[in-house]
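=== RUN LOG ===
request id: a7f3
mode: sequence -> structure
chains: 1
length: 438
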Amino acid sequence: MTTDAAPPVRNPRLARRQVATVALLMAGYTGYYFCRSNFPVCAPMIREELARGGMSPDDAKIGLGSIITIGALAYAAGKFLGGGVTDRLGGSRIYLAGMLGSIFFTLAFALGGTLPAFLATSVGNRFAQSLGWVGIVRVVSRWFPYNRFGTVMGFVSLSYLFGDALSRKFMKILLDYDFTWRGIYCTTAAVLGAMFVLNLIFLRESPADVGEPEPEPNPDNLFGREGAEAKSSGLASILGPLFRSRAFWCACLLSIGLTLLRETFQNWTPLYFKDDLGFTDAEAADKSAWFPFFGGISVLLVGFLSDRLGRGGRALVIAAGLLAATVALFFLAIRVPHGTAFGPAAVVALIGFLLVGPYSFLAGAVALDFGGKKGSAAAAGIIDGVSYIGAMLSGLFMAKVSVAFGWSGAFAVLALVALLTGAVGIFFYWDQRRGLRA
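=== RESULT ===
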């Protein structure tokens, strides 16, 4: 991406408002993850409850995988529907609506007791949660200049990385105090409720709402001069330039592969630690937080770096991270670090560092680069939406692979996925170097 924009004139009042906007978005999306990470943390207890009801442990595991898979489908559908709607209705409205929906379905899940009830309420929650990120992207496109997208979205992405880690640590404390999984669900809904009130009061859609000018979008955006306009537009005029871009389709393929990798670790790490390494439920919840924590460090570093590498910088970071992660996953597959329980947990943390930063670009800074102010939410919705093909595979498919071939077989499959996705990253780098509209 080009980074040759003239330095902006210092505006202390706007700068303070921008910092406040980032803080509100981070706090709110952290709350979203309290109502998302509760499922993988509570999965061992939910599996045991289903087993006490007559299901075998393996059947219960497959049932939980089905919830992940169908929930990912609902999440993807929400992304596709929500992106274009958000570009028309505004980011802050959609962002707040997603919060309310997630609170409702989290509480409804806690009232359930059967696999069908868990499935229905989980699907509703995932659909509501899909609205949060596209709302964030739309708001950021209005508040910040394009040569700070990587850094700003890096900070905002901490909300789902450190937020994930923080929520798991928080739930570990609740487990230490003998909370049931239903108690955890109700508590996490209350946390998101507090974040909803905070954002409802203070979040604004645009600097224009507080009497400040809006910054210019990336001049390389796929809409050209129209990308500087935030006015509502027909869906065809938004989708056409995106679908005609080869670089955009490369970004979609990258999103599928990276999401399969990330969601597998997000959803299955506690069970892997418990089944393969012998951790307790609380230990597994605690150590599983390493993946998003070190991923969060990665997001900050590579976001700052990509803004300074210029055109092609984001793609270069993505390809390098994927190829390095291939090696780490291969080591897990052949059980190289399994001399102690610390070894595999450390490698999982390393994989989080290598993958989560590149993952955060795609539906964040890259979508903003593609869409400008006109189509940023649509670009984010499509890139993030197609990614949940990977998320669906991370559920039922990876559950079946781990049951049939063990965790070593699952890591071998993930190593192959990382290698193939890294190859796509190289093609994406070539396209970015030529310019998005080339």
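=== NOTES ===
Residues 342-434 form the longest helix (93 residues).
The radius of gyration is 21 Å.
=== END ===
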